[in-house]
Amino acid sequence: MFRKLYHWTLAQAASRHADKALAASSFAESSFFPIPADVLFIPMCLARPDTAYRFAAIATVTSVLGGIFGWWIGQFAFQSLAAPLLEFYGKMAAFETLKSNTADGAILLMLVTSGASHIPPMKVVTILSGVISFDLKWFIVSAIIARGGRFYLLAYLLRRFGTKVIDFIESRLPWVAAAFLGVLAALWWVLHYG
User: How many CA atoms lie within 13 A of 136 on its CB side?
Assistant: First the structure.
């Protein structure tokens, strides 16, 4: 099933409705859809680098709106909407573990890591934020920073370096992820102890 969704999503990047598909994918990824918006975003930016920043704007705005929808699901409709989705994707145990060990600082950190690297999945963090009543203003600000930073950085790199940046990231993914997590850990330490 996921393979079919992946191929369907990838096919949308070449369609004349790619902007709408990107908006829908970015919105849905932040609240319930299992395929990251990057599957559309990256091929679209590579195919049309002159509009990469417009694609980044579309992805950022709709991703944040999707995150707000995920927060709303967690806050007001967890049992009727979120719990069945989490069960369907096999994420309920991960969700319960996160819920039992989560405070506001951890939510901020998860929003940034999820928004920037999909770890943990964005939909899990947005729903969890609503379940624990994380402040919606801070949620929106952190989602804008994380998702906007990710999409605009990718747009810049794809415009400037094209497929070379994808090859670089894929060949050095563990190092890129470790460096990113190191920066986040340093930021968390500065915010709490600096």
Answer: 10
